[in-house]
Amino acid sequence: MLAVGLMSGTSLDGVDTVLCEISGQDESTKVKQLYFKTYDIPESLRTKIRKCCSRELIPVDLICSVNFELGYLFADSVKSLCKDANVKLEDLSFIASHGQTIFHIPKPYDDYVPSTLQIGEAAIIANECKTKVISNFRVMDMAVGGEGAPLVPYSETLLYSEENQAVALQNIGGIGNVTVLPKKGDTKKVIAFDTGPGNMMIDEAVRTFYGKKYDTDGYYARQGNLISSLAAELKEHPYFNLEIPKTTGREMFGEHFTKSILEKYHSCEPNDLIHTFTWFTAYSIAYHYKKYLISEYGLKKCIIGGGGAYNSYLLELIRNEIPEVTVMTQEEHGFSSEAKEALAFVILGNQTYHRSPSNVPSATGAKKSVILGQITYPTL
């Protein structure tokens, strides 16, 4: 059957939209990517999303409106993809939509309970595209004691497990996250967690200084130098003291955090700040590999996906930090770095479609395996 996966991540690069052919379920799942494209988020909507994700007072009418605005944007992305791929909307069996994360609280603090909020109204997508929509994947995992993230380990286990060696699947989107797949037959469990910032802090600095969305291939970072005092400060970030499994997001490494650093180090050269943020992403990945993965799993292979895979300077820094690990990209492995997460939600949606579980408790900390997501049916 045909299905579309939608992913709009913390980096707000665009709406990743993938058309797949998928069959089977559980270990018999077979999936083939047919067409992929990233559709722009209008700058006016991007600004609204950033405001919704900030830790400042947010008017509830803004979140209410953006929920529907994103629903229409996601629906338009599906329509455009199907038109580009010459596929009829009625031929789709389902659309799997991750939604746009507004806030994520993996652990309780103050008077707040563990919770998560993704928006992008599924009813709008279902009505506009005339097919069922599977969405809101994270909440059921949290209902049974998990952190609601990461969810991609299920799809990665199906697609990337190897007979003779462990493999790390490192995604570098707005946030960095890794899934470690033990070699087949190993008694160790699949583990996954967020490694810290991905492109988020880099993008914020580039947007502030140059008015651009991201640092293309590390252009600005290459021209800068490490700010040693800032590097030392970043190494002391409390996220590094948390034990795995753990998750993070814009609430910890987003605009508020990054702007506070830019203000504190306002006398430094812009490219030096961008360089240091790029180094910090590489450092945070290497720190967790050295602490948890390289010795424990005999890890020698890492496959990188997400937008960060296209920043060759970032990859160079990662390779310098962990020379004992072969670092390659999804493209070198025959997949698409950009499509990886959208495709993952097609697989998760397929599990929900068949009433089968798809969380990985050893990765999220959930008490048991559960069926993820909610199904919204189109109007008749």
UniProtKB/TrEMBL annotation:
Gene Ontology biological-process annotations: 1,6-anhydro-N-acetyl-beta-muramic acid catabolic process; amino sugar metabolic process; peptidoglycan turnover
InterPro entries: Anhydro_N_Ac-Mur_kinase (IPR005338), ATPase_NBD (IPR043129)
Reactions that this protein is recorded to catalyse: 1,6-anhydro-N-acetyl-beta-muramate + ATP + H2O = N-acetyl-D-muramate 6-phosphate + ADP + H(+)
Binding sites annotated in the UniProt record for ATP: G9, T10, S11, L12, D13, G14, V15, D16
Enzyme nomenclature, EC number: 2.7.1.170
CDD domains: ASKHA_NBD_ANMK
Pathway: Cell wall biogenesis; peptidoglycan recycling; Amino-sugar metabolism; 1,6-anhydro-N-acetylmuramate degradation
Keyword Lyase: no
SUPFAM superfamilies in UniProt: Actin-like ATPase domain
Function: Catalyzes the specific phosphorylation of 1,6-anhydro-N-acetylmuramic acid (anhMurNAc) with the simultaneous cleavage of the 1,6-anhydro ring, generating MurNAc-6-P. Is required for the utilization of anhMurNAc either imported from the medium or derived from its own cell wall murein, and thus plays a role in cell wall recycling.
Family, similarity comment: Belongs to the anhydro-N-acetylmuramic acid kinase family.
PANTHER family in alphabetical order: ANHYDRO-N-ACETYLMURAMIC ACID KINASE
Name this protein carries in UniProt: Anhydro-N-acetylmuramic acid kinase
Gene source species: Granulicatella adiacens ATCC 49175
